[in-house]
Design a protein that fits this description.
471 residues; alpha/beta; Aconitase, domain 3; four-stranded parallel sheet; globular
Length: 471
């Protein structure tokens, strides 16, 4: 019987399945952090239960950590308490922790892939919605709630309904200045922030196949932003080359055995998907959001769609979003002044992202009116950036390479955007108050963010590519 990639991996991990009930799904790897794990550990403690398979659980501190002076005590009381509780819980229950100061510490969805913990064919969960990032390796990876975190800690299994499947193909060659972030923002703008609800999405097509692993992670990361349960990409030689030799990846004979299995992980040619969508890469230009959900996005040269063009039932919320952002119907965004530029988050904080920004800003200076935060996704990314001299390039441009953490992606640490200020951000969400109370967020690629940092305004990066140094 022909199967999709999701079905192949799912069926291989079902412990028990009965008609009319959720499947009992075995979880290969459980990632945890300081925000959604404390109540789960308390639940185990109250029931007198151990962590069932601690060797399959990996913890790190990321959401609440400061990104400057990490060697000092955390100043925010709640943040300090949550990080301290993670340290205590991991020590008590025998869970590996990559906490502050550890060379493997970083954003949970950055360290899994770079350490070789994330592997094709796995089932992976975390109490974090952007767990779908790991699907870039051909894994079933999805976010779970705190009660489910407790379930996995106690049993290494979850009760889950088998999801519907969707295939999204993007074919053709990407235009100048268009990156993975633009692809996913374009898709979400076309199908809406709810268009993937109930589905597990497989991304395919020539444009997807041409992407690096880091770019594929950006695509899968934002699957949740269209309501999907998760997203994945079939592993190929690009995947295998990325994984080989990493810290916890299989070695020697184990590698050969694993590779033989991974090479079977693809959707059969006649596999049936519940829905199939196809897009042309040539239609995508650098993207930017203008509203308060990731579906409110458009090409950088376009004008904001009019409220009257929206379905009648959505016009009130649409207008409310524009009012929050301080924008109007039919307005262009190019030339709008920006206050902050944030380059980081589990969407765009890997070494490839930092290299691209450094190459673009080399020999240029940031606008005096803009504050720029560049936050690596992990200690390993930070170390590599310094070894390659990227920190010096950033410093010369007026930027500062900070220390790893979720940072200004969300207002749970010291890196908050002030009320009313505009932040051009490489993160994944532009909800009201996401980056701080009354902060205004515009989602873009690292390249488009770098252009805003240099010019001090929303800019079509294509006008600056291959251009001489700005005066």
């Amino acid at each position: 019987m022909s199967k999709t990639l999701v079905e192949k991996i799912w069926d291989a991990h079902v412990v028990k399945s009965e008609e009319g009930f959720p499947d009992i799904l075995y979880i290969d790897t459980h990632l945890i952090h300081e925000v959604t794990s404390p109540q789960a550990f308390d639940g185990l403690r109250k029931r007198g239960l151990p962590v069932f398979r601690p060797q399959q659980t990996v913890a790190t501190a990321d959401h609440n950590v400061p990104t400057v002076d990490q060697h000092l005590p955390i100043r925010e009381e709640l943040s300090r308490f949550q990080v301290d509780m993670l340290t205590k819980n991991c020590a008590e229950f025998g869970v590996e922790l990559y906490g502050l100061g550890h060379p493997f510490q970083g954003i949970v969805h950055v360290i899994g892939p770079e350490l070789g913990i994330t592997l094709p064919g796995k089932t992976m969960v975390c109490g974090d919605s952007h767990t779908s990032t790991h699907g870039a390796f051909g894994a079933i990876a999805f976010g779970i709630g705190t009660s489910q975190v407790e379930q996995v800690l106690a049993t290494q299994c979850l009760l889950q309904q088998k999801p519907k499947t969707m295939k999204i193909e993007v074919n053709g060659t990407l235009n100048t200045g268009v990156r993975a972030k633009d692809i996913i923002l374009y898709i979400i703008s076309k199908i809406s922030a709810a268009g993937g609800t109930g589905y597990f999405i497989e991304y395919a097509g020539t444009a997807i196949e041409s992407l690096s692993m880091e770019a594929r992670m950006t695509i899968c990361n934002m699957s949740i932003e269209m309501g999907a349960r998760g997203g994945l990409i079939a592993p190929d030689q690009i995947t295998f080359d990325y994984v080989k030799g990493r810290k916890f990846a299989p070695q020697g004979e184990e590698w050969d055995k694993a590779l033989a299995y991974w090479q079977t992980l693809y959707s059969d040619a006649d596999a049936k998907f519940d829905r199939v969508l196809t897009f042309d890469a040539a239609d995508i230009e650098p993207m930017i959001t203008y509203g308060t959900n990731p579906g409110m996005g458009m090409g950088i040269t376009q004008h904001i769609p009019a409220t009257g063009s929206q379905p009648e039932t959505e016009q009130f919320s649409y207008q409310k979003a524009l009012d929050y952002m301080g924008f109007k119907d039919d307005e262009p965004l190019i030339g709008k002044p920006v206050d902050y530029v944030f380059i980081g988050s589990c969407t765009n904080s890997r070494i490839e992202d930092l290299r691209e920004v450094a190459e673009f800003v080399y020999g240029r200076q940031k606008a005096e009116s803009v504050e720029v935060w560049i936050v690596p996704g992990s200690k390993q990314v930070e170390k590599q950036a310094i070894e390659e001299g990227l920190d010096k390039v950033f410093e010369a441009a007026g930027f500062r390479l900070r220390e790893p953490g979720c940072s200004a992606c969300l207002g749970m640490n010291e890196d908050k955007i002030p009320a009313g200020k505009y932040c051009v951000s490489t993160s994944n969400r532009n909800f009201e108050g996401r980056q701080g109370p009354d902060a205004r967020t515009l989602l873009v690629s690292p390249l488009t963010a770098a252009a805003a940092a240099i010019t001090g305004q929303i800019t079509d990066v294509r006008t600056l590519l291959n251009q001489p140094e700005l005066a």
